[in-house]
Amino acid sequence: MKKLSARRRHPLAALVVLLLALACTGGLYAAFAPADKAQADETAQSLAIEEGKKLYAVGCASCHGTGGQGTTDGPSLVGVGAAAVDFQVGTGRMPAQQPGAQVPRKKVIYSQAEIDQLAAYVASLGAGPAVPSEEKYGPEGADTAKGGELFRTNCAQCHNFTGKGGALTHGKYAPTLEDVDPKHIYEAMQTGPQNMPSFPDTTLSEQNKKDIIAYLDAVNGDDTVDPGGLSLGGLGPVSEGLFGWIFGLGACIAVAVWVAARTAKAKKS
């Protein structure tokens, strides 16, 4: 009988070696792998908030307060969300030139990167609607006919049935929706700027908002042709009635005067 030259291995030795190898591999990966994507995103968001805070202190704090709490010249921004900032600043309404019943749309003075930083800072003050992604307001999957029905039910009272805008009370007005970025229309429905009520997802779903935007693009697009001929500005029955009174009734009066003059002349002769 041969003498054993080595001691017999324990049955669990291979398993122990495998676990040690896995532990070493994991440790090396943790030490040398790049930073986790979530951590990188968090760092970028923190930097955006810091830069936004600097921009806010210069351009917004005088009206809205140093911490966004609001003043007599401007409302609180706590809880309005990034979408409200993207709309107000992205359409040039903010910073406002002066207080008034209505802040008009004007030239944008901030770059999109600066607007994103301002939005990040204001969003950090309190939870609110986020800036929508393009898939939420894009034309894919939109129902234009349904959008028209929803718009006439919820929006036409102020904006007119084709989005041409209209007058309100005490110097306020509903602005035209022509040449407005679809993202800003979506954000306006989300946040309810100025005199407009808000339409959260519980009132108008994301699909409803997409349908309304598709309808507005259909009636106000560059290649839109009015099948009825002269649209009279698309302002509805008031402008059409006024046109009828001035030109239609005026033409009738002119014809009546002409007939009366001809009749009088015929009697004299």
Automatic annotation (TrEMBL):
User: Residues in domain Cytochrome c?
Assistant: 47-126, 142-220
The protein's PTM annotation reads: Binds 2 heme c groups covalently per subunit.
> What's its EC?
7.1.1.8
Q: Which GO terms describe its cellular component?
A: plasma membrane
The record ties this protein, via SUPFAM superfamilies, to:
Cytochrome c (SSF46626)
Please give one Gene Ontology molecular function term for this protein.
Answer: heme binding
Enumerate the residues binding heme c 2: C155, C158, H159
Signal peptide positions on this chain? 1-30
User: What topology does the record note for this protein and the membrane?
Assistant: Multi-pass membrane protein
| Positions of heme c 1 binding | C60, C63, H64
Transmembrane portions of the chain: 242-261
Stored InterPro entries = bc1_cytC-su, Cyt_c-like_dom, Cyt_c-like_dom_sf, Cytochrome_c_Oxidase_Subunit
This protein's superkingdom?
Answer: Bacteria
Q: Where in the cell is it found?
A: Cell membrane
How does it associate, per the subunit comment? The cytochrome bc1 complex is composed of a cytochrome b (QcrB), the Rieske iron-sulfur protein (QcrA) and a diheme cytochrome c (QcrC) subunit.
Protein name per UniProt: Cytochrome bc1 complex cytochrome c subunit
Organism of derivation: Streptomyces rochei
